[in-house]
Records
---
Amino acid sequence: MRIILLGAPGAGKGTQAQFLMNKFGIPQISTGDMLRSAIKAGTEMGIAAKKVMDAGQLVSDDIIIGLVKERISQEDCANGFLLDGFPRTIPQADAMKEANIHVDYCIEFDVPDDVIVDRMGGRRVHPASGRVYHVQYNPPKVEGKDDVTGEELIIRDDDKEETVRSRLSVYHEQTKPLVHYYEQTAASGDCEYFKIDGTKAVEKVSAELEALLSK
Ligand code: AP5
């Protein structure tokens, strides 16, 4: 099962990726998490990426495509994977096609911008696992702590309202065209395309995804 999760920043891709990963036993490939690991490790690429990410812009296609191809070639992706945050531009989607990386499903999370801005202010993350919480809509069992490890949750550097607004405008300009791209891919029979209402409660979105993908 090879799945693309498509949607604006904060639409719930990472939250549902954790659910799908556990449900279907396939790895989550989050380009955002990969970049944040590179930042933490202090690599040259990480240092360059941090400036771009803090400004709410996109990291160059070449870097991202290289990272994803390398990750997909690993053994744990043999039976499928979840792409979370990739592709994000038409050249990234084309690169996947050229590399013969076929996907079975493209799932779009539809959430209006004002809901996104509200959500991001309350997001808390556990960087080591990628688990995501919200202080109000998806709170951890113990305030400020990860449910599994008990470690401290953090606020992402790019969750400031100003940066979120830049990320949303980048989404509309550069990523939204992928909706049409994958609708056309689906029309030619090369994948299935589902659009889901990402404003519903987390568990309702999970249940809808499970129903769609279990068919
Ligand atoms: P990345 O880490 O991929 O961020 P993003 O796509 O902007 O997505 P987010 O992680 O912000 O949101 P999400 O949809 O996963 O939502 P979440 O589940 O956390 O990318 C960061 C940066 O890296 C980019 O800006 C770019 O610079 C760079 N980058 C990454 N990939 C790249 C690429 N391919 N090309 C170029 N550059 C790239 O949910 C958000 C909040 O809402 C949480 O608090 C959650 O608990 C809550 N929530 C989730 N679902 C619901 C719900 N149904 N109801 C209420 N609250 C909910």
---
Amino acid sequence: MLGTALLAASRSTLVRRAVSGFPLTRRVVERFVAGEDTASAVAAIRRLTGAGLAVTVDHLGEETRDADAAAHTAKAYVALLDALAPLELGPRAEVSVKLSAVGQALGGDGERIALAHAREICAAARAAGTTVTLDMEDHTTVDSTLGILRELRADFPGTGVALQSYLFRTEADCRDLSHEGSRVRLVKGAYAEPASVAYQSKAEVDKAYVRCLRILMSGKGYPMVATHDDRLIAITELLADQTGRGRDAYEYQMLYGIRPDKQEALARAGGTVRVYVPYGDDWYGYFMRRLAERPANLAFFLRSLTST
Ligand code: FDA
């Protein structure tokens, strides 16, 4: 109930203005966001990779309705990748892109614009010795995102994509994308989706996650298991044993600021753990989804607003 209200608020311009304008919000946001500019992102990337973690970096922004803003976001990614190249981190530092931030939501020619911007980002990633993963947004964008993925993979075969276990369609998408060379990030899903397309209860979403995981782990691609859920991590280890996957044939992914102890413990145990590092000033939608995932985060946020 509360989660649904927060997800609705994540799309409200009015609430966005109120929350973003509140000075103390920043303190709480910093727990989930690495900073507002490229230099802050690079500092966080250095710290995390220095601690033995890999990263995927997200320049915050989504549902851009303005072509100039879409071009600006693509440029920000290219600048970030140019700044990463001399660090020679290679695939240990890749980027995550929301297609709606680079043109997909513009309408008209939007998909073509998003594809062109995504290509520029993929080319900069290749020059830095790394890859791009496409985030998955609400269910209305899935076909478009998978179509753009197919086009990108023709020139940049390392391009990956996120799939969401809460959608009924995702088991079939996992089968389609479990081929050699395919990189799939499996997540539960973070948007408010209707019962006509998505499982509504946590138990159903978790069970669907396990079914999708089984498909990916027994397939020929590279599964990226993106969850903070201990039970799903334990199931991944069992499936890796059953399918004879070595630790270098799959990876874990978690969000910046969420369960950092677990991130480091998994990495110490010899697995690849990639932290999703968001940065930029357009943090509102991302931040509200993190609050919606966990009531304790909302309590922390409200306490910080009332403390001096
Ligand atoms: P679940 O929400 O059941 O949480 C399991 C446990 O993890 C909780 O009990 C708690 O301990 C901890 N936890 C989870 N969320 C927390 C939070 N916000 N704060 C503190 N603790 C928390 N979604 C999407 O729709 N499209 C996408 O492209 C992506 N991309 C993506 C990349 C990466 C690397 C990750 C880790 C996640 C995403 N997501 C996403 C978000 C994903 O869909 C999902 O909403 C969150 O990962 C939370 O789900 P969990 O699997 O962690 O389980």
